[in-house]
Amino acid sequence: MRIGIIGAGRIGATLARHFARIGHEVAISNSRGPETLEDLAARMGGSVQAMTPREAAEFGQVVVVSIPYGRYRELPAAQLRGKLVIDTVNYYPERDGHDSDLDGEATTSSEKIREYTGANLVKAFNAIYWDTLRDAVRPKGDPERLAIPVAGTDSEAKAVVSGLIRDIGFDPVDVGDLGEGGRKYQPGTNVYAVPLHADELSGLLHV
Fold first, then answer.
1. Rounded to whole angstroms, how far apart are CA atoms 185 and 97?
2. Which residues pair with 14 in a beta bridge?
3. C-alpha separations of 18 from 15, 24, 86, 135, 168 in Å
4. How many structural domains comprise the chain?
């Protein structure tokens, strides 16, 4: 599978390494230009290329968005429209500036990104610390394997993302649609950034 990644911070870069490790073609990008990522891509191996965000969006059959929420309007919306997008983004008012829609809980950051891009959005990888994502990989059936919550409206899209989660070494837990489901593990919830096994996560979220 071809996977584009927009945002080469800790989560984006960690996912690029994981996806390349399990055999996917990966394009990684940031706002500063592909030349700033050439060394990083080279260290990850031949299946990882440095591109612009627009190029990464066009390249990917699946595209990971891992940028600060306050910059989501910089995303290449035309290239993301209709694509399966994995949204790892969280809203932090102190970093992103206040958004009255989110402060008033009228909607969620994922729903606003979906509205802007027209993408088939699945929320995942936003509720795990990057170093846990990097280091806590475990084989299927390992009692120490951790869970990653997944929310989205399209069941087929969630199945694709859940497969990627399993393949890199975690257990997916489907928590429902993008709005109400995604709210359950955003910052400030009792499961955000807490390492949990699948049965523990399911129990806390009443799945």
1. 21
2. none
3. 5, 9, 15, 11, 6
4. 1
Give pLDDT, residue 207. 53
Cβ neighbourhood burial of 159 (10 Å; 0-12, 13-18, 19+): middle
CA neighbor of 60 nearest in space, from 5, 138, 115? 5
CATH of the domain at 55: 3.40.50.720
How many Å apart are CA 185 and CA 37, to the nearest integer? 31
Q: Which range marks the domain in which residue 59 is found?
A: 2-205
Give mean pLDDT in consecutive 10-residue pieces for the chain, a chain of 207 residues: 97 97 96 93 89 98 98 97 98 96 95 98 98 97 96 97 98 96 95 96 85
Contact between 185 and 149 under an 8 Å Cβ cutoff? The reply is yes
Closest CA to 88 of 20, 150, 168: 150
**DSSP conformation class of 127:** S
* Residues ≥6 apart with Cβ < 8 Å to 156: none
Cα torsion 9, 198, 203, 179 to 10°: value is 40
Three-state secondary-structure class, residue 179: coil
**Beta strands of 12-113 (E only): which ranges?**
25-29, 48-51, 62-65, 84-87
